[in-house]
Amino acid sequence: xxxxxxxxxxxxxxxxxxxxxxxxxxxxxxxxxxxxxxxxxxxxxxxxxxxxxxxxxxxxxxxxxxxxxxxxxxxxxxxxxxxxxxxxxxxxxxxxxxxxxxxxxxxxxxxxxxxxxxxxxxxxxxxxxxxxxxxxxxxxxxxxxxxxxxxxxxxxxxxxxxxxxxxxxxxxxxxxxxxxxxxxxxxxxxxxxxxxxxxxxxxxxxxxxxxxxxxxxxxxxxxxxxxxxxxxxxxxxxxxxxxxxxxxxxxxxx
Length: 254
Hints:
8-stranded mixed sheet; 17% strand
């Protein structure tokens, strides 16, 4: 979906985003949907789903996370900072209510917003967010260690189709992200109780990166949370697009 790229500055970082149309007739009476990509990608991963939302009259906002796509590189990549960027963008756009959809690292960003500003978020969708440790007594547990053949194929073809995302990704954040995944993040777990939006958590199967034990703990911690499992890997919206659409569109009211 070709939309004009806009850049806004929040302190020392510039965030790029695309917007299907603020104040347009088709979006005036609808809550906007903000789509947040995962680590190593950019907002174009959502183009197919965004087109479906726009056809249904929704205003769609697609940012690039800091250090990704057309957004600026920065010296710091802490999980709360990704969320703070999203919240600042919502405030800059004067959004009174928004539906948030986040994949992987984008899941941290949108869940953080839902914790910090629960009255802002109408619906929350989190796809394959690797859940952090709750305490120092736990070990990191993913459902697998190596990518599957289909995921390797998709990674290769994604590079061919969207080389900009790979070339613009700030690889210096990789170590910081892995460090955060491996350390306890009790504040995130404590904040789940503050989420008031109905929440849909999507997890993959054996090829995913979500600990099934922790996702059950999350389901019970969020006041209104549904978990749905899919037979694919880490990128449900890419590898099982029709199933993803069938689950998420009705949840968003379509």
